[in-house]
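User: I'll paste a sequence; please echo it back and then give the predicted structure.

Assistant: Echoing your sequence first, then the prediction.
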Amino acid sequence: MVVITSEARDVILDAVRRMYSEVARTPEQGFHFPTGRPACELEGYPPELLDALPSGALDSFAGVGFPFAAQVIEEGQVVLDVGSGSGTDALIASALVGPTGKVIGLDMTLAMRERLRENAAEAGADNLTVLDGTAEAIPVPDTSVDVVTSNGVLNLVPDKAGAAEEIHRILRPGGWVQIADIVLGETPSEACRSKPELWAECIVGATREEEYLQLFRDAGFEDVEILDRVDYFAHSPSEGTRELAASLGAEAIVLRGRKA
């Protein structure tokens, strides 16, 4: 395993911020990964959910799967969306928990937080709060959240074990995590993974599937299971990205797990 120094971590996070600032501000330019409503549709989002959302939330969507396949969110709950982006998942969660519930959108990219606030206002999502922060240090109290959702984020996080532990910390006993993310069949070379600027490409920062699941088991989650798989990178407009993903067995999974 490559050791990520504090300096390298800063470079990784800066690269990720730059990439997703562009997704937020100029989604029409196109990227090496699927984005927008077409990405939602290939990942299995029902059309009726998408039709209810502001176009701005869909235009800058950069998730990799449909975490709501977990079917764990109920009315009146508190839901935290780690890496909420422009708000596709946060706004869906807002509708699911209703006026008696609460949704917290957490993102480290200013442009995405600004886009989320605009989209929440347009959708009339008064139960949605936006916070600045990362998955490695979530700024909410212990045992204060019923469900954590995340979509295409932890593969970008340098300290994945720390992120899984943070998610476990903030969940109430019996709370659920629902996650869509990228996993690998083969580990990239150390030379490849030691280049922080490549992490924003979504592939080299990912881990092997079994290691990814074990992160959550080690953090204290039970009933960790994969619900769905998506050949996400097969739809990339970049031939180089498709070839790299195929060589590493990269795919998107949707999983859920429960805090005991």
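The longest strand covers residues 171-184. Residues 6-25 form the longest helix (20 residues).
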